[in-house]
Design goal:
heterodimer, A: alpha+beta, two-stranded antiparallel sheet, B: alpha+beta, six-stranded mixed beta sheet, 21 helices, about 30% helix, globular
């Protein structure tokens, strides 16, 4: 039952991404690895309820990718994320979300949700105060400045992914999101796009990795990569996974 | 404000009155959390009120306490365990106060919900489950869940909770009040075995995390309690977030070979971990059953080969999943256990000695002896004895026990009660290897601290730390000095690790000596606090020796306080933890004494005093001191001498500050530990040790 549900979820995710992102996204080239997609400005303008004006954003210099088959479901990444950012262990405040359905069959038992540092960041685009911004000082990572956040949740509503990658903190009434640990006050290392990330550091499986090239943007699988070939005893579901390749940005 | 690492309150649910209330965790902090705190809560709720003899685990006045430790869910690895405590129906002949624990994510989730534990009292008049969503706690109807297996129950509860909620759990941010989560509720539940009040019924969480020992699944059944579900959206404060992650990295760098993991055993895709852990003991893919932790539940149905055919991997999966779904303690069902050995010649067990003489092995032995079977006083119905080698036999055995059908009804009360009921309790003298209190032999001998621990505790202590020694990897004298250095405050006594078992040396420095008494006391204090209260997983800690270091130095006694202090900020020393364990251990001793424990009844099963008591081919190379030199010696012939054990008991009771004649704790011992109230109750019951 859970297995079917998770499979449905992934289909739903793909469908939603395709519809919403292509409808609401800007006219940027979505490219990476072996896949590239282009949506014309005209087509977007016709379909979108957003202004047709073209706005481009500098790409993030790094991206967090994951291997959902390699993950052990320990959620150490979530605990580490909340520890370094919030100073407490808190699954609900983690900017990476790992959801387990332990009774579902592999690989449908684990769903990982990371911020994609979108080329066309709807969270940034929809933020009315500039709190959610592309940080030039931090390798163009998409970050939220808590000082400027007014708690309107526009970034949460704008995120086209399920679950949304922007995270609501009910105590501070502000949003947060993955900053690749650029602003992690309780982290004992230098974070950010050119530094370390708590989730990557703590993962016992090597199931998280920071890469420089923009991963494929076609659907949610673009960030779910084979970081190492699975051993022969690991069954596959017959669906090929995207192989990660350094593509440059 | 609660101490960092603790949520600050313990949930108390009375199923008789339906009252839901909270206890202040701070009141119990001196007991360390986990089993220590549960012991003190048991004292307050079950002992202090008086009025009953504390001997029946199925009495509604018994509690079942789920307690977390201060480290669960904080990012410290191998600590996400939930302790379970209460009177344990499996222990024989008395349902001693006992404990078990299980991994997974239940403990962290309970703390995220704001609770250090949940304690269940009373008995519902109809099936229920307890639903905890942060501080919102309800007692829900479970009539339609009764009869479902463990996995079906969890699926059904997830479905129910999702129906009540805005979106389905686990797929999207779920709004709970003003908070959100993407997590499914963590559930601990029973299957048919627990519902039928089997004394070997386990509590199962997730696919295969389970608390088997004690039979607490039967306690759930006696209370008409099917499950506890919890989802938490809050956080756990820690004293030093940087310190937590630094300690974690330091441990991985310095002690990579502790526990289940190390070079050659690097984690491969397909393993699964408890929350925050990095050991990878469980499985995502079915290489050993769904989410099984690769222990007894995986191999309980394996047959000794030869003489029987080798059990196939697919049959192992079937057997693994079956006991998880039925909620049975696999240890009591074993056909062989982890391994079988060629027996010492001349012993009654036969030519093959299984590691566990569980139901699968014992009934075949009795059948072959002509004791049980069709037409006999005890029929083997519904077991197809002519299909003993087929997995279907194991399946029918497990199902008949869980459903109490035929011979399964007798076996459902545990193997020792089965032997007693059919008039075969004398088998404990030779073929039925249950060292103490009806629990299965494990790796009990020749590592005698395991055996002694079983005797003075109330279960198979199941502490693998000493049993995983390095044998001949280094000179024997260096090894015992290394172990001593890991055992503060007794770091000056390497004779604690002498396994001399014959002649005068056994009494001077060996297994009947003051030194061994001191080590067993330390080992119990260590386990009571660090393993059962702070809830470091037995698969990782203690770590007294580590082959990844050139000098062999293990993580104990440095790692435990480093992790604890990073989380709690209390600045406690390793020995402070030992003392906390000693406090809870002494309170537990007082409970045992009130239940009827005396020196006289602390005796091993007869086979332990006879040749063949030790595992003949496993873990038998041990340090032995001959009066002038240390040598590695094969102790496969080791068995206990009754007089020697009595000598050891005297030394042990004195070490603990207990009356050597009765085994009762003395007032001074209890008062020095801040437990005058315990001494007063013992005195009122004429069970206080003489000064």
């Amino acid at each position: 039952m859970e297995e079917e549900f998770m499979a449905e979820e992934k289909k739903r995710e793909k469908a939603k991404y395709t519809r919403r992102d292509f409808v609401r996204g800007g006219g940027t080239i979505l490219a990476g690895g072996t896949f590239a997609a282009y949506v014309s400005d005209t087509a977007l303008a016709a379909a979108s309820d957003q202004p047709a004006e073209k706005q481009t954003y500098a790409r993030s210099s790094a991206y967090l990718v994951y291997d959902s088959r390699r993950c052990s479901g320990c959620q150490s990444c979530m605990l580490a994320c909340s520890l370094v950012h919030e100073g407490e262990a808190n699954l609900s405040l983690s900017r990476i979300q790992v959801s387990r359905a332990v009774l579902a069959s592999y690989p449908y038992d684990i769903q990982i949700s990371v911020c994609r540092q979108c080329p066309d960041p709807l969270c940034v685009k929809n933020c009315p105060t500039g709190a959610c911004h592309v940080s030039e000082a931090n390798g163009n990572v998409r970050m939220i400045d808590a000082e400027k956040c007014i708690g309107c949740q526009a970034c949460i509503k704008a995120c086209p992914y399920h679950p949304h990658r922007t995270v609501w903190n009910p105590a501070t009434k502000k949003s947060s999101k993955c900053d690749l640990c650029a602003n992690a006050p309780y982290f004992n290392k230098k974070g950010g796009a050119s530094g370390s990330q708590a989730c990557v550091s703590v993962c016992p499986m090597g199931a998280l990795k920071l890469v420089k090239g923009l991963p494929p943007q076609a659907d949610i699988s673009g960030y779910d990569v084979d970081l190492e070939p699975p051993p022969s005893e690991v069954p596959t579901d017959g669906e090929p996974k995207a192989k990660f390749e350094i593509t440059g940005s | 404000m609660a101490t960092p690492g603790f949520a600050g309150k313990i949930l108390l649910v009375n199923l008789t009155t339906k009252q839901i209330s909270a206890l202040d965790s701070a009141k119990y902090e001196a007991y360390g959390g986990g089993h220590g705190t549960a012991t003190a809560v048991f004292w307050d709720l079950c002992v202090a009120p008086g009025g009953w003899d504390l001997r029946d685990a199925f009495d509604p006045r018994n509690i079942v306490a789920f307690m977390t430790g201060p480290l669960a869910g904080t990012g410290v690895a191998f600590t996400a365990r939930t302790s379970v405590s209460g009177l344990a129906p499996q222990t024989w002949p008395v349902n001693w106060f006992g404990h078990s624990n299980f991994g997974g994510n239940f403990a962290p989730m309970l703390k995220f919900a704001g609770w250090d534990g949940v304690v269940v009292q009373g008995k519902s008049d109809s099936p229920v489950y307890i639903d905890i969503i942060d501080d919102k706690v309800t007692i829900e109807d479970a009539k339609s869940l009764w009869g479902l297996n463990v996995w079906e129950t969890q699926e059904e509860i997830w479905k129910r909770e999702s129906i009540k909620a805005p979106v389905r759990y686990g797929s999207e941010w779920q709004k709970l009040g003003d908070r959100y989560t993407t997590q499914r509720p963590a559930i601990v539940t029973i299957g048919p075995a627990g519902e039928n009040k089997s004394r070997i019924a386990a509590l199962i969480h997730g696919g295969g995390s389970g608390a088997g020992q004690g039979g607490f699944g039967g306690v759930f059944g006696s209370k008409n309690l099917k499950a506890i579900a919890v989802v938490g959206t809050g956080g756990i404060k820690v004293f030093d977030p940087r310190g937590v992650l630094e300690a974690r990295e330091w441990f991985e760098a310095e002690f990579p070979m502790s526990g289940q993991r190390g070079p050659g055993r690097d984690l491969k895709p397909g393993v699964s971990c408890c929350m925050g852990c990095n050991r990878g003991c469980h499985s995502r893919i079915q290489i050993r059953g769904v989410d099984s932790d690769s222990c007894t539940e995986m191999i309980w149905a394996n047959l000794p080969s030869p003489p029987y055919k080798r059990t196939s991997t697919s049959d192992m999966w079937k057997a693994t999943d079956l006991v998880q779904k039925l909620g049975l303690n696999a240890s009591d069902l074993c056909f062989m256990g982890a391994a079988s050995f060629t027996s010492l010649p001349g012993t009654e067990i036969g030519s093959i000695c299984p590691a566990n003489t569980g139901a699968g092995w014992y009934i075949k032995k009795l059948y072959d002896m002509g004791v049980i079977g069709p037409g006999k006083k005890v029929d083997t119905y519904p077991l197809p004895m002519d299909q003993y080698e087929d997995i279907e036999f194991a399946e029918i055995l497990a199902l008949s026990i869980a459903q109490r059908i035929g011979i399964g009804d007798l076996l459902a009360d545990g193997i020792v009660r089965f032997a007693e009921k059919i008039g075969r309790i004398g088998d404990l003298n030779n073929i039925l290897r249950l060292p103490a209190w009806g629990y299965m032999d494990h790796w009990t001998m020749p590592t005698v601290e395991w055996a002694y621990g079983n005797l003075v505790d109330s279960r198979d202590i199941n502490n693998h730390d000493m049993q995983l020694g390095p044998t001949k990897l280094m000179p024997c004298e260096k090894y015992v000095q290394l172990l001593a250095s890991s055992s503060p405050p007794y770091s000056d006594d390497p004779f604690m690790f002498d396994y001399s078992w014959q002649g005068e040396q056994a009494y001077k420095t060996g297994i009947y000596s003051d030194h061994k008494a001191k080590f067993v006391a330390w080992h119990q204090h260590y386990a009571t606090y660090y393993k059962e209260s702070a809830l470091f997983c037995d698969w990782a800690m203690g770590n007294y020796f580590n082959p990844s270091n050139p000098d062999g130095k293990g993580a104990t006694p440095i790692a435990e306080p480093r992790f604890l202090n990073a989380v709690t900020g209390r600045g406690q020393s390793f020995v402070d933890g030992i003392e906390t364990g000693r406090r809870a251990w002494n309170m537990k001793r007082a409970i045992f004494v009130l239940q009827g424990r005396t020196r006289e009844i602390e005796k091993f099963a007869g086979y332990m005093y006879r040749r063949g008591a030790s595992m003949a081919n496993f873990g038998t190379m041990l340090p032995v001191y001959d009066g002038s030199n240390w040598e590695w010696a094969n102790c496969r012939e080791l068995y206990l001498d009754e007089e020697g054990v009595e000598h050891w008991k005297t030394a042990f009771y004195k070490t603990e500050g207990w009356d050597a004649e009765t085994g009762y704790p003395k007032r001074k011992t209890l008062e020095d530990l801040g437990m005058k109230h315990v001494a007063d109750v013992l005195e009122a019951n004429n069970k206080l040790g003489s000064a």
